[in-house]
Amino acid sequence: MVFQDCICFQLGRITRKVTRYYRDKISTFGLTHGQFFMLIAIFEDESLLPSQLAKKTALDRPTTTGLLDRLERDGWIKRQPDSDDRRALRIHLSPKAEKNRYSILSIFEEINSQFVNRYTRKEWKLFQSFLNRLE
Fold first, then answer.
1. Closest Cα partner for 111 from 40, 7, 51, 62?
2. In this predicted structure, what is the pLDDT of residue 25?
3. Euclidean distance between the first and final Cα of the chain, in Å?
4. Beta carbons within 10 angstroms of residue 107's beta carbon
């Protein structure tokens, strides 16, 4: 096997390329790649606990906490006490996030579509099955 055939090398190269596409578009919002995808996850399911967001995004809890800390510091989210358990904090969108929701989701849809649309529906399902098998 040669270096270029290494799966880690190939996946890493593709990940860096896709990340650049996002980075160029999201820089105007002052978001990092990780913050952007955490925000997308919150748009999809608001009011989750940080532990639920960690599971949803497949990130460890310390990484999730760091992303949430920065999103809160920059005014994108609010942590609010859970109505059933005051020790727990649920993650909610701020007015800033709501104001920019459409623009951010448009970036997500646009770039994701650029890559997904390179495949037929059947190819995409097969590709997803390959990724799931790798995981």
1. 40
2. 92
3. 22
4. 20
Q: SS3 for 84?
A: coil
Residue 40 token pair: 């997308």
Q: Which residue has the tokens 């650029």?
A: 114
Query: How do residues 20-55 score in pLDDT, each as one tens digit?
Result: 989 989 999 999 999 999 999 999 999 999 999 999
Q: Which CATH architecture best describes the domain 8-134?
A: Orthogonal Bundle (1.10)
Structure tokens, 118: 């390179």
Q: Which residue ranges make up each domain of the chain?
A: 8-134
Beta bridge partners of 111: none
State the helix-helix crossing angle for 61-73 and 33-44, rounded to 10 degrees.
90
Give pLDDT, residue 36: 97
Q: Structure tokens of 62?
A: 């310390």
